[in-house]
Design goal:
With 278 residues, the chain is of the alpha+beta class. The protein has helices at residues 3-9, 13-24, 72-83, 88-95, 99-115, 120-126, 131-134, 165-174, 225-233, 242-256, 262-270; strands at residues 40-42, 48-50, 56-57, 145-151, 154-159, 179-182, 185-188, 196-200. Bound molecules: zinc ion. Zinc ion is lined by residues 32, 34-35, 37, 50, 52-53, 55.
């Protein structure tokens, strides 16, 4: 979204709120987020109550956007900076909020992006990622293994629950699956339908002093996704391997939206309901 359009939607609290509402309710048709019932009672301060299950809610209840203490205008400013991949310190400075608020907003945004991917809702459920919305610390989880599948100018990055770092090591040692590393990121030669498997080495490989392939793998010579992603992944650091999953899903989203405006797509993801929220 160009800045002149952006300035128009953010010019007042009301315009920013109205802009985000478009992504929440189709044709302004509100329904209960718990039971989908459409018969609602209006309460004060813009809240509504469901006539069936009695749930009281406001326009952003149970949506990703409701999990950080940012106003609609602050969210829209944040989304613009997120779209432009501004450094988190710089975001905090530009928005005049704490670094922790920015970290939280980044986690929420990445989770919303994940939720919108094909296998996202299932991943959120299986790995209990909703806890990331409530706690600042990530759940302790073994390093996830993902498969990279480029297809017709797009890319699909799938979480593969049956694979772990241990199985990757088994493939490397017993089936000679060629493996390279980039810092702490490990990636492999093609496996089944995937051009490569990829994971964050939480020490499992490095402690065993595994030797890596020197020659390029098919992923290295891939002309579309990998030149885009590898330059970003080279700078990626984490203490929690789960972050790689979130970051790869973000790269999948950015790459697949590179020919269109990502701003409304990000707004739409953030305004969607959180799956598995109970
Ligand atoms: Zn209801």
């Amino acid at each position: 979204m160009r800045l002149n359009t952006y300035e128009h939607i953010i010019k007042s609290r009301k315009s920013a709120h109205k802009f985000l509402l478009k992504f929440c309710w189709k044709n302004h048709q509100r329904f209960c987020p718990r039971c989908s019932n459409r018969k609602l009672y209006s309460l004060g301060s813009g809240r509504r109550r469901c006539s069936r299950c009695k749930y009281t809610f406001h326009d952003f209840s149970l949506r990703f956007i409701n999990f950080a203490r940012l106003s609609p205008r602050q969210w829209l400013r944040f989304i613009k900076l997120f779209e432009l991949e501004v450094d988190p310190d710089m975001m905090a400075d530009q928005l005049g909020v704490s670094y922790n608020t920015i970290r939280k907003a980044l986690t929420i945004s990445r989770l919303s992006v994940l939720a919108g991917s094909l296998d996202g809702p299932q991943i959120i459920k299986n790995l209990k990622l909703v806890s990331l919305l409530r706690n600042s610390s990530a759940p302790d989880f073994p390093s996830p293994v993902l498969g990279i599948l480029p297809s017709r100018g797009k890319v699909f990055i799938d979480y593969i629950p049956d694979l772990t770092l241990e199985t990757l090591l088994h493939f490397r040692l017993n089936f000679f699956l060629r493996t390279r590393c980039m810092g702490r990121i490990i990636y492999t030669a093609p496996y089944k339908k995937y051009l490569s498997l990829i994971a964050w080495d939480d020490g499992f490989f490095s402690h065993r002093k595994i030797s890596y392939e020197r020659d390029k793998l098919p992923l290295d010579t891939h002309k579309e996704f990998w030149p885009y992603a590898s330059s970003k992944l080279k700078k990626f650091r984490t203490v929690n391997p789960l972050r790689l999953l979130l970051y790869l899903k973000e790269l999948e989203f950015r790459f697949n939206h590179s020919n269109e405006d990502p701003f409304p797509a990000l707004c739409s993801r953030l305004c969607s309901f959180v799956p598995d929220l109970e």
